[in-house]
Specification:
By secondary structure, the protein is of the alpha/beta class. Helix content is 46%, strand content 12%. The protein contains eleven helices and seven strands. It has a seven-stranded parallel sheet with strand order 3-2-1-6-4-7-5. Helix 1 links the parallel strand 1 and strand 2.
Length: 268
């Protein structure tokens, strides 16, 4: 296992931009099986947030010919650390609701990610075996992926969820190749726009969110003293921006708007 290291140079393969992030996995076997699932589908990047202090031998048994993925997995102290250089962050969950942001079926979401990953780093978060992702972890995701399961038994094993998402990403790639070759074109593919732009990282967005919060307070759009409503308004903005992403030019435009508002209100 390795600590986080900075990315060097542009990555030529869109799969190199996909990072599978296991948040506080408890079972060593799931870590090894996830490494195998990732490699089965042609991916390499496995990230672990606060894994067990000692990874049992079971992980190596279940990795089965994917020890390179397992041994190169990067370990992080927090979700915040692992996503700070990523442009797109998505979570996997079986629970949906109006307070948990936009949710897509895994198939549709992976088609979207396949399209965006050519130019941008993507983090896909998988929660704990017993309780999934916490609300504050869901809150950093611009999009949630949902895997349909039986009503009688909804919960998937962690490594199963990793395999399904990795498979849907691989399938999305195959469908795009078929389309470019003049074969069958799906409805979703027909709706796709031009190639994706390079988006700014989550670390850069955090600074923008802080500036936007201050400006909205100047405009008294955020009610004074109502911290719950303030948090809800800002979270909705984060969902919106996080889902779509911002280019550097768009981010500079937002900063320009903030500066102009501050100037007009005499608070610059």
């Amino acid at each position: 296992m390795k600590g986080p290291t900075p990315c060097q140079g542009a990555l030529k393969n869109w799969k190199d931009h996909i990072y599978f992030v296991l948040v506080e996995p408890k079972d060593s076997g799931n870590i090894g099986a996830a490494a195998r699932a990732i490699k089965n589908m042609g991916f390499q990047n496995l990230c672990l947030v606060r894994p067990p202090s000692k990874i049992a031998d079971e992980a190596r048994w279940l990795a089965h010919n994917a020890l390179d993925v397992l041994d190169s997995a990067k370990v992080f102290d927090s979700v915040s650390d692992v996503i700070k250089d990523k442009s797109i962050v998505v979570g996997t969950t079986r629970r949906t609701g109006k307070n948990r942001g936009m949710s897509m079926l895994a198939q549709q979401g992976c088609e979207y990610l396949c399209e965006r990953a050519g130019e941008n780093k993507v983090a896909i978060l998988f929660g704990r075996e017993d309780k999934g992702l916490l609300n504050e972890e869901v809150a950093v995701c611009g999009l949630l992926l949902n895997i349909p399961t039986s009503k009688e038994h909804r919960s998937l094993n962690l490594s199963q969820a990793v395999l399904i998402v990795a498979y849907e990403l691989l399938k999305a790639e195959h469908e795009r190749k078929q389309t470019s070759g003049g074969k069958k074109v799906s409805r979703l593919t027909r709706q796709r726009s031009a190639p994706s732009a390079v988006l700014v990282s989550q670390g850069e967005l955090r600074a923008l969110y802080s500036r936007m919060t201050d400006v909205l307070k100047l405009l008294e759009y955020l009610p004074r003293g109502d911290r719950d409503l303030e948090a809800k308004i800002m979270q909705n903005l984060k969902y919106f921006i996080g889902r779509a992403g911002l280019t550097d030019r768009e981010m500079r435009m937002f900063y320009g708007i903030c500066s102009q508002i501050e100037k007009k209100t005499g608070k610059q």
